[in-house]
Amino acid sequence: MISSITAALTRAAPQGVDYGIRFTNANFDSTSQYTQPTFGITSSIAYMLNSPLMFTADTAFTSIAFDAFFFGVGNVVNVWSGANGTGTLLASQTFGQNCTPTCLQTSYSMFFANALSVTISPNANGTGLDNLRIGSVPEPATWAMMLLGFGAIGYRIRRRRRVHILAGA
What we know:
Residues 136-160 form the Ice-binding protein C-terminal domain. With 169 residues, the protein is an alpha+beta fold. It has two helices and eight strands. It folds into two domains: 2-137, Galactose-binding domain-like (Jelly Rolls), CATH 2.60.120; 138-169. Strands 1, 2, 3, 4, 5, 6, 7 and 8 form an eight-stranded antiparallel β-sheet that branches. Mean pLDDT is 70; it is low at 1-14 and 30-46.
């Protein structure tokens, strides 16, 4: 969550579980905390990103989802195959303005293959981020268990057919 990002960026004590993701290069304008009393939401806060944010994961991931407020055009999200914004550009999305000071955030998703880092570059008007979610690549043991389960289901179906055929004869 954004509180974990803020803690890491301000060198405060880390919060939450370490999932092997490092955030770098970002500055958040804490004076631009965003609330929406007109909608009865008093605890909805998104920190305004005022410089590029980059995060790198220890293991590959295949999707990113986030809620965002884009105040102006030219907000760019790039997904890279290498650490720290290096390697092959796997996906890139430029976002236009989706918000004015009285709007709700919009949810976005991006899918790609085996990324290690993401850069988010806000425009001069700022970008608000919240609920950042990353989808990881399943581990080999997960694939093995899934294949074993499908095999067991197939064996059970085949055996059931054979019993019905013998009973009908």
